[in-house]
Each structure stands twice: as C-alpha cells, then as structure tokens.
C-alpha cells in the first residue's frame, strides 16, 4: 500500500481552525518580534498537524506550501463563482459552490483577497442576498423608462406614464436625472451553500479580526516592549551607579593625595625645626665657656 501523500480532512480542519485563531500566518509580519512570533506559531502548527492520526507528516516548509496552494485554489474558485454571479445576459450561472472549509478560508484571507477588489468589504459573503432594486430614469424624448436591477433577470420595462400637464415646466428645462451607480449583484447560491456554523461564526471572526487590527500590539509584543523598557532602565541605573562609584573613587584618591601632601609638609617642617634646634644647641655650647665664672671662692684665713 502506497503511503498517503495528501493531508486528511481532519488535518485541513485543524489547519483552518488554527488560522482562524491566530490569523493568516503567511502574511508578512512587521518587525523582528512579529517574525519570531510567526515562526513560533508555524512550529506549533506543524507539531499539531503531524500529531493527528490517519494523516500525513510534513515539514514546516511543506505545510506552508499546503496552506499557500489551498489559498490559491480557493481564490481561483471564489473568483470564478463571483464572475458567473455578476455576469449579465441571463445565461446559466456556475454550479460550483464553496465548501464549508473553503468558506472559512475566504473568511481568513478576506473577501477582497479572493476577488481582487478593494471596494468589497471583507468576509461579507454570509450576508443574505437580497435583490437591490434601484430605479434608473432614462429620458429618450418624451418616453421615461424605469429599470429594476434584479440579479440574473432581464430588465423589465414599465408602461409609459401619462403626459405631463402643461402647467409644469417642460422636460428640456428640468435638470438631468441623477443616475445611481450599479452595485455588483450578490450570489444567492453562495449564501445558500454556507453552513449554519460558518454563518454564525463569521460575525464573531469579523469582530475579532477588526479588534486585532485596531489593537496596536499583541500581548506578546507588549510584554516584549515592557521587557525592553525594563532592561533599558536597568542599564541606565547601572551606568549611574558606575558613574557614582567612579566619582567617589576619584574623590577618595584626591583626599588621599592631599593627606599625603600634608604629611610631607609636616615632616619637612619637623626636619626644619630639628635643624634649628641643633643650631641653637651648638650656639649655646660655644657661648657658655666664654662667660665669667660665678663660683664663690672660699675664704682663706
């Protein structure tokens, strides 16, 4: 029996659930912290998918390729369904529909990414399709034609209204009618094929993605920023402590040098006093022999 090459449905379901929780990991991440977080999540996803029984085991790069191929295939299929749904002429519509997992893939990557149009809101495919009726007035002489825009239906021409009374201004004097832009019709088949689970989960995912976009940083990024701020503060305090130690050491050396200088001057002064004392003693020793004797001579009788 040949080994299994394609991932199992359980692995595809686990893959899309992981992407719904953490967002599309294949999108470029801003900053080094974002890239590290994406790589860590890819490693976690690879371990999760390889641990599912009955599936295949792939490396991290191969699981990235599986996700990229799945997104590309879903985009092409969704774009084809969109073109058939918005086509004109009354021809038969495409019978292709998105599966429940493919609907979730479109929700993760965003509707604009699947169609390639920025004017379409993301993840809006689960909204019930309602025919948009916008009357468009076309003036051709005295005939006024009203057209109701209904998806996959031919325009209906209404009867010509009664002639305008003479008291009203002529048609040529009126301002030209304002034409309303046609909105692209929505596919009713896509809303019918969506599962109740995906229809209920889409608003919650939309709010989560909107809150994630509004949030500047993830908890991991905030923790990293706080850690960097604490580390910078610690380095500043360490630098201040080293500077204070250096200043105190310099002050201690200066005081020590002053004390040595005072001791040297004190010793020099003592030496000078010793020399002066020696000179005084020598002078006194030279002067004493020349002085008259004061001894009392005894009486001689």
From TrEMBL:
Q: Which residue stretches does the UniProt record annotate as biased composition, category Basic residues?
A: 203-215
Composition skew (Low complexity), residue ranges = 190-202
Q: Where is this region: Disordered?
A: 119-138, 153-219
Q: Which UniProt keywords apply?
A: Transcription, Transcription regulation
> Residue spans with biased composition (Polar residues)?
119-132
Task: Report the superkingdom from the record.
Answer: Eukaryota
Q: Where is the Myb/SANT-like DNA-binding domain?
A: 8-78
Q: What does this protein do?
A: Involved in transvection phenomena (= synapsis-dependent gene expression), where the synaptic pairing of chromosomes carrying genes with which zeste interacts influences the expression of these genes. Zeste binds to DNA and stimulates transcription from a nearby promoter.
Subunit relationships: Self-associates forming complexes of several hundred monomers.
Protein name (Swiss-Prot/TrEMBL) = Regulatory protein zeste
């Amino acid at each position: 029996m040949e080994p299994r090459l394609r991932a199992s449905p359980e692995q595809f379901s686990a893959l899309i659930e992981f992407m719904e929780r953490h967002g599309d990991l294949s999108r470029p991440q801003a900053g080094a912290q974002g890239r590290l977080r994406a790589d860590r999540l890819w490693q976690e996803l690879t371990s999760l998918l390889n641990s599912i029984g009955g599936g295949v085991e792939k490396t991290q790069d191969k699981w990235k390729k599986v996700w990229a191929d799945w997104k590309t295939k879903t985009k092409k299929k969704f774009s084809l369904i969109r073109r058939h749904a918005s086509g004109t002429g009354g021809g038969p519509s495409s019978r292709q529909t998105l599966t429940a997992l493919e609907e979730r893939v479109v929700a993760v990557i965003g509707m604009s990414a699947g169609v390639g149009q920025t004017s379409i809101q993301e993840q809006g495919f689960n909204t019930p399709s309602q025919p948009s009726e916008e009357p468009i007035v076309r003036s051709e002489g005295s005939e006024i034609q009203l057209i109701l825009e209904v998806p996959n239906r031919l325009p209906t021409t209404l009867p010509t209204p009664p002639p305008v009374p003479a008291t009203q201004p002529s048609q040529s004097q009126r301002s030209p009618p304002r034409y309303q832009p046609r909105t692209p019709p929505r596919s009713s088949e896509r809303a019918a094929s969506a599962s109740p689970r995906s229809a209920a989960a889409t608003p919650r995912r939309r709010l989560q993605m909107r809150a994630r976009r509004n949030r500047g940083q993830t908890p991991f990024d905030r923790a990293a920023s706080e850690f960097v701020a604490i580390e910078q503060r610690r380095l500043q305090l360490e630098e201040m402590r080293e500077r204070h130690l250096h200043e105190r050491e310099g002050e201690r050396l200066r005081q020590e040098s002053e004390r040595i200088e005072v001791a040297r001057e004190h010793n020099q002064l003592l030496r000078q006093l010793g020399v002066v004392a020696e000179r005084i003693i020598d002078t006194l020793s030279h002067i004493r022999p020349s002085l008259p004797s004061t001894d009392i001579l005894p009486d001689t009788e």
